[in-house]
Amino acid sequence: QVQLVESGGGLVQPGGPLRLSCVASGRTFNYYAMGWFRQAPGKEREFVAAISSTGGNTYYVASVKGRFTIRRDNAKNTVYLQMASLKPEDTAVYYCAAMLKAYGDSYYNQYHYDYWGQGTQVTVSS
User: What pLDDT does residue 121 have?
Assistant: First the structure.
């Protein structure tokens, strides 16, 4: 069992930065690929970014490439989403998720993830 707790959300002005953190419980964090997803009001939850268990591979949705960076610190059981140049359309609840068996396109598919955090709200507005 893995428990995930996100933090770092809040209100930020357009163009500003924000860093989300997700801390995982347990001693097997380094076995899991990690992903960030988001859900805006009235929309489906969508993939944002993911990182392999070793941190050697990262994946992004096209709309955030060049603006968001995902990284992990396995010694701290933590995955981060560094967001820059935020836009109002980035407003959403952001969720982190853990996936034990990662392969191919599974990083992009929410149904392949085994554990989810409770989410943290990010609001981009002036």
Answer: 98
